[in-house]
Specification:
There is one protein chain. By secondary structure, this protein is an alpha/beta fold. It has 2 domains: about 5-60; about 105-270, Vaccinia Virus protein VP39 (Rossmann fold), CATH 3.40.50.150. Helices cover about 50% and strands about 15% of the residues. The chain contains 12 helices and 7 strands. A 7-stranded mixed β-sheet has the order 3-2-1-4-5-7-6. Helix 2 crosses helix 3 (about 45-60), helix 3 (about 45-60) runs antiparallel to helix 10 and helix 4 packs antiparallel against helix 5 (about 85-95). The protein starts with a helix and ends with a strand. Bound molecules: S-adenosylmethionine (SAM). S-adenosylmethionine binds near residues 101, 131, 179 and 197.
């Protein structure tokens, strides 16, 4: 990046943080820098780069998909763990209902993971990439006890609540605030989940999934994509197959397939070796 662009970037960081799109988000520095650097490479005028970065920030956070009141949710979790496993499941179910992708999945949650594990076997380690509220599905996922579950998201209050939940559940707290596009996790794992986010990542940076999928050190990758548009009117399957075909490097994966569920299609791939 030229010295002029670097200096523009520093100035725009402050403006991006001060704007109302950003308010209360606490997004990681790496995400803001990455967004601005990309927009500065696309636009000549810093003001245009800032405008475009703000629009992308809105898409990254997708406020329209729903969210929790994190302070209240933390208290509910504590109370549930004091009451017992049924209360914990009820509280997790209530959290999953707050977010579009997890709410939709509740209907077929157990089958979803059964079918996934029928492909990769019972994993001893899993990466949940851009996890959102999905970690609260752990009571239904049926991971073997002792399995390592790593969760990554860019929303710090979400990650803090997930960390509380993992600790209260007696699991290792392996949740992390991390932008998976800027720093793809390098942990070796049996499986990685990238659910309902790859198509939105493409809006941030076209073709970014190819580099992300390639960088992962996992035996199996499961990428789920929506079957229909948010308003339910358009069938998106062909478009999503295209996204997978464009981003999958066939030289890296020895087998692949699809699993169909009412709300999403899971595209899976198995690495060579
Ligand atoms: C639509 S939700 C998907 C949630 C989850 N994967 C599921 O299917 O239930 C998107 C989540 O991805 C997170 N996210 C978006 N971009 C990200 C990135 N580059 N790195 C890590 N997390 C990201 C958002 O903060 C949000 O929690």
């Amino acid at each position: 990046m030229s010295p002029q662009k670097s200096s523009d970037l520093e100035g725009l960081m402050a403006q991006l943080r001060a704007g109302k799109t950003y308010k209360g988000l606490e997004l990681p520095e790496e995400t803001l820098r990455d967004l601005l650097a990309l927009e500065l490479s696309r636009y000549k005028k810093p003001a245009e780069a800032l405008k475009s970065a703000r629009a992308k920030l809105h898409n990254v956070m997708a406020p329209y998909l729903g969210d929790l009141d994190y302070a209240q949710a933390a208290q509910e979790l504590q109370a549930a763990f004091s009451s017992g496993p049924d209360a914990v499941k009820d509280t997790c179910r209530a959290f999953l209902q707050q977010h579009d992708s997890t709410r939709e999945r509740l209907v077929y949650l157990e089958d979803f993971y059964k079918e996934i594990f029928a492909i990769c076997g019972q994993p001893a380690s899993v990466l949940d990439l851009a996890c959102g509220l999905n970690p609260f599905a752990l009571p239904w996922i049926g991971l073997p006890s002792g399995a390592r579950y790593y969760a990554y998201d860019i929303h710090p209050p979400r990650v803090a609540l997930i960390t509380d939940f993992l600790r209260l559940s007696g699991k290792e707290a392996l949740a992390e605030v991390r932008d998976i596009l800027v720093r793809p996790p390098q942990v070796e794992a049996d499986a990685a989940f990238l659910f309902k986010e790859a198509h939105r990542l493409e809006k941030r940076r076209k073709g970014c999934n190819r580099a992300l999928w390639s960088a992962l050190k996992v035996k199996y990758l499961f990428v789920s994509l929506p079957r229909r548009s948010l308003d339910g009117k358009r069938d998106l399957r062909e478009r999503m197959r295209g996204l997978v075909a464009d981003n999958l490097n066939p030289a890296e994966w020895e087998a692949r397939g699809e699993l169909d569920f009412p709300g999403e299609t899971v595209f899976w791939m198995k690495r060579h070796g």
